[in-house]
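Protocol step 4 of 6: record predicted structures for both targets in the notebook before any analysis. Target 1:
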Amino acid sequence: MASQQNGDNPIFDESFEFQINLPELAMVRFVVLDDDFIGDEFIGQYTIPLECLQPGYRHVPLQSLTGEDLPHAKFRLYVRYGEERMNLENVQEKNK
């Protein structure tokens, strides 16, 4: 994923959509990497049960590979859940 160059505060403009069949068992793992010519340098990670991830804007703390909190390391994300997957066909049918 590319980000806008913003020094210590990069901005990622990425969206992900996926279907979840057993939300009570699902976990979400966020991994932040510094992608450059040499390789992907690990910055931080965070894993959370999906059911604990509430809709809306969230600040997510980053942890080391061993699970230790990284001071001043976090990212912001927006979470939205939906029952129906929106695609062009659904939009066209709703507009009739």
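Target 2:
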Amino acid sequence: MTETARKKAFPVFRTRLKGRAARRVRAGVAWILQGAVMTALTGSRLLGDLSPFSVACFAAGLAAGWRPLPMALGCALYGVLSGWSAQAVSALTGCALAGAFELLVRRLPVPRLAAARDGITALEAGAAALLPGLFMAGGVPYNMMTALLSSCAAALLAPSLTGAMALRPDRKRLLPDERLSCALLAEMILIGMGSLPFAGGEIAEGAAVFVTLILSSRGPAMGAMGGIACGAALALGSGVAPAGSALGLCGLMA
């Protein structure tokens, strides 16, 4: 009886062990991807030494169920690679503020919180980008205006990124707003890749060509538009100005 029970229990135990190991592997891969996305986005900027893209991504990630620890570690990794530049410090401070705002919102007895999720995400991202920017402005009007513009960009982008960051691997068809969200996230990642301290331009160029080839499979118009968009991201990130026309032509011909 004991031997029979052992034989019956062993397959069940092995199945549970495999399932547990698979879940841990998936969780580890998710941590690495989330950290890598934040590392790239911390290097992307619009004006000055502020990083509104990373703050917007952090707030959207919290709304989409991403883990705050790997995102913060990815932001800190860019700080280590860049020698803790002002941009990395402002991004990490903004992410910490966004996390604190999210904890505060979840503790408040607010009815119908899910219905106002996009607005809350926008407010979190805007405030988290504005406060470090005003602190670093030093009372200079131009720097204060830069902080305000970065805050507006973060507030507008954060709800738009939630659709892409909430996607699961088993999704086969995407809605139009989810496609737009994925396109925005990809453009921001390309901008950040070009600003990485080590071989960022080369990595961004390879990723831009890869994305252009993928989009060209949807037709020449999609390939041309995708190539021009990827080239614009390269111009903002690594300063490769002619890349837009070249990638657009490649997407059209592919």
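Step 5 preliminary note on target 2. Residues 175-254 form one domain. The mean pLDDT is 76.
Proceed to step 6 after PI sign-off.
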